[in-house]
Amino acid sequence: MKKNFLVLFVFALITVLAACGGNGEEGAAPDNGGDAEDALKVGMVTDAGTIDDKSFNQGTWEGILQASEELNVDEKYLKPAGTTEADYLKEIGNLYDAGYKFIVTPGFKFETAIFQAQDKYEDAKFVIIDGAPHAGDFAPVVKDNTVSVFFAEHESGFLAGVATALELKEGEAGFIGGMEIPAVQKFNWGFQQGLKYANENLGTNLSIKAENVIYQGSFDNAAAGGQIAAQMYDRGVNVIFTAAGGVGVGAINEAKTRAEGGEEAWIVGVDVDQYADGIYEGDKSVILTSAMKKLDAVAFDMIKQELDGNFPGGQTLTFDTKNAGVGIPAENPNLSEDTVSQVADINEKISAGEITISSEQGDLFK
To answer: Residues 314-325: pLDDT tens digits?
Structure first.
């Protein structure tokens, strides 16, 4: 009797252990197209603003999410308590300690933090967007485990300026920037050159005054963005180009309020296609077009190159019209077919070197 009981007990125990160790059962690790332990773990530390800032952070994160879905990588982001070098290094370290050794950082503020991290975590890979690692002396040092990515914002701004002038024909434009840093400045300068080109070559008359070119000083003060936009619209501005992250969101909200009241109040978005963010009635949007940096495509491509064994470590890459790294959305209900066609032609001319756009201030308004 005891012998039979012992046999039954052992059999039951083996059955339970087998069930606990089986694949596909409740509580098992998800199938990521292979062993989840071997999946590339991609981390991101956010810059000023949030993961849904409708701009830089969001565009980068969407590329990582795409890689998660299509390339079966494991993803995670951390938002630092502040925006100092120490804040960034803390979260980079937290990602590394959790096994996330492919780390993407969007923004120039990460430059000194990545300079240190690329030596401290030699077996990790780093992608810094819109910046290059340096020790505080602005002398770039891009190690073999790091790639530095830049965009030709002046080309994107130029195309948005041409599209804006072609569509509106005449009126007053404005520009709201966040911090007065090179990436934002180049958007501004390119936009103004685009307006000038259209006025001189395409029969438009859309001007921009010095008083309507303002850098707010941050990327997260939505209230200030709304206030600045309101002042510009009250001065007769018809369209505002916002290269300002969360500050731009405030300007978009002001434009939506005015559009709901029947006023003409257009916005040119930035970094990503912001059309959906400008919707105020049905499918109507205040976003005339957007000066895009293909942040999602670049983040996705860097991850794919790592998986393919082709990570471009030690390199500084620039994405422009030649490699489709910048531009305006291919489709936008607020742009006519004629405008889209003309902008596409100009895009080709820029790529071919037939039109040269300055990345410096020149004699344009600040």
So the answer is: 999 999 999 999
pLDDT in tens, 78-132: 999 999 999 999 999 999 999 999 999 999 999 999 999 999 999 999 999 999 9
Question: How far lies 194's CA from each of 137, 198, 280, 345, in Å?
Answer: 34, 6, 28, 14
- Whether residue 210 sits in one domain with residue 67: no
CATH label of the domain that carries residue 345: 3.40.50.2300
Alpha-carbon 286 to chain mean position = 20
Task: Say which residue the tokens 């530095």 belong to.
Answer: 148
Residue 110 shares a structural domain with residue 132? yes
In-domain check, residue 50: yes
Residue 269 falls within a domain, yes or no?
yes
pLDDT, average across residues 219-238: 96
Same domain, 145 and 164: no
Question: Which residues constitute the domain of residue 104?
Answer: 38-151
Overall number of domains in the chain: 2
Cα–Cα distance between 25 and 80 in angstroms, integer? 36
Q: Read off the pLDDT of residues 117-140 as tens digits, 9 standing for 90 and up.
A: 999 999 999 999 999 999 999 999
Terminus-to-terminus CA distance in the chain, angstroms? 95
